[in-house]
Amino acid sequence: MPVLLETEFKGEVVWAGETPSDAGIAASAVAALSLGFHCLLGERHQGENRSSCVRVSNLYPQGTTIRNVRQLSILSEEELALIAADMGLEQVDPRSLGANLVLRGIPDFTFVPPSSRLQGPDGMVLTVDMENRPCILPGREIDKAHAGFGPKFKRAASSRRGITAWVERPGQLKIGDSLQLFVPDQRAWAP
Fold first, then answer.
1. Shortest CA distance to 11 belongs to which of 188, 187, 186, 183?
2. What domains does the chain contain, in order, with CATH numbers?
3. Interval 39-72: pLDDT, tens
């Protein structure tokens, strides 16, 4: 019996980007992504391992080498529109957020359960790590294009910042591809 259930939800890739390792957080739009086990070569979050950051500071001293489950930043087009509206902007550019993918069509995307899978048309699979909580870095990028709006990002993006994910099975993704959502077959945690 499978432990991952196929859902009725599919996310259409409407934007793809890469963040060069020497470019800070700002991403560059691309037409396609070639994803390996190390994710995207030359990209900011590439690699099998990474240095721990503030997000896991209650587990490790900052800089400890740990498994990299934050290879990709994936956002929802619908949630980006809500962030922009709350900030008083027409739109928020995913480049400013260091995004790798923007998907359309999966509701409540930021809260897709950890360990869910997104499978592409060639069999490529991304595994969901967890919610990507907002920080101040995207606000600094937004402020470059929209002076004074950057500080509004963190609050507007709360519960809408998307997810982090890692490559479970390598493959290709391009604009217009559809990712099928599979979720773990388990009840919610109830301690």
1. 183
2. 4-184 (2.40.33.20)
3. 988 888 888 999 998 888 999 999 999 999 999 9
DSSP string over the chain = --SEEEEEEEEEEEEEEE-BTTSTT--EE-SEEEEBTTBSTTBTT-SSEEE--GGGTTTS-TT-EEE---SEEEEEHHHHHHHHHHHT-S---GGGGT-SEEEES-TTGGGSPTT-EEE-TTS-EEEEEEE----SHHHHHHHHHSTTTGGGHHHHHTTTS-EEEEEEE-EEEETT-EEEEEEESSPPP--
pLDDT tens-digit map of 105-140: 999 999 999 999 999 999 999 999 999 998 888 989
Report which of 38, 32, 26, 17 is spatially closest to residue 168, judged by C-alpha positions: 38
